[in-house]
Amino acid sequence: MKVVPLTLGAHLRAEDWDKIDNSFYFCPSRECEVVYFSNSSGVYFTKEDVKTRVGIKEKEEPKPLCYCNRVTEEMLRRAILEERCCSSVEEVQSKTRAGKGRWCVVTNPSGRCCEWYLKDIISEMLGMAKLAKGQKKEERLRRLELEITGMTCQGCASVVQGALESAGAREARVSFAEGRAEVLVSEDVSAQELVRAVEQAGYGAEVKREV
């Protein structure tokens, strides 16, 4: 993704400003440590070189999504899955103001509006919220986040998702880039059953958080 010098200047440290020109691009790959690169000048800036936290490349919160209105992934998750605020992408954006900024070329490290990844994240969370709402009142669902190791491609993520669902996960969202999985399970499914299913599929798993 092409970025302009204005964007670079806002997110790079002052000691690197003399390297900025019109030849830079933003790398949108979640698994890549490089944020900005210029193949023509041979200059590459990684996450360590950028003073702003790049949300789509982070595995731990805070993971900024909308920089203009200061919305993180955790804030969206809380609004959608815990507060049950909304039933559509538009309602979520209206309530949280995510994707409603006007200064993206400066505030967002990608130099553009976060909607290029934001709506997919919101849609996945809404799907999980709808699933949980549809369960019988006497059945409680809980959400678990697992760290997944050993994945080398998106196909691996599909295998892990299948393993989790076969172990009892009502819904599983697996991110190869982030090396993690988020699942909804009923009370009678233990975390160890999920971990064991992933291990039997040939990968590693560790529960990081349970809600």
Q: How many structural domains are formed by the residues?
A: 2
> CATH class of the largest domain, please?
Mainly Alpha
- The CATH architecture category of the largest domain equals Orthogonal Bundle
The stretches of 5 or more residues where confidence is low (pLDDT under 50) are none
Total helical segments: 7
Q: How many β-strand stretches?
A: 9
Helix content: 25-40%
Notes on the structure:
The protein has two domains: 5-131, BFD-like [2Fe-2S]-binding domain (Arc Repressor Mutant, subunit A); 138-210, Alpha-Beta Plaits (2-Layer Sandwich). Helix content is 34%, strand content 21%. The strands form three sheets. It has a four-stranded antiparallel sheet, sandwiched between helices. Strands 1-2-3 form a three-stranded antiparallel sheet, with no helix packed on it. A two-stranded antiparallel sheet has the order 4-5. 31% of the residues are buried. The model has no long low-confidence stretch (mean pLDDT 91). The protein has seven helices and nine strands; from the N terminus they run αβββββααααβαββαβ. With 211 residues, it is of the alpha+beta class.
Describe what is shown at a glance:
By secondary structure, the chain is of the alpha+beta class.
Topology:
Blueprint: H1 5-11, E1 25-26, E2 34-38, E3 43-46, E4 64-66, E5 71-72, H2 73-82, H3 89-96, H4 104-107, H5 115-133, E6 141-149, H6 154-166, E7 171-175, E8 180-186, H7 191-200, E9 204-210
Antiparallel strand pairs: 1-2, 2-3, 4-5, 6-8, 6-9, 7-8
Helix pairs in contact: 2-5, 6-7
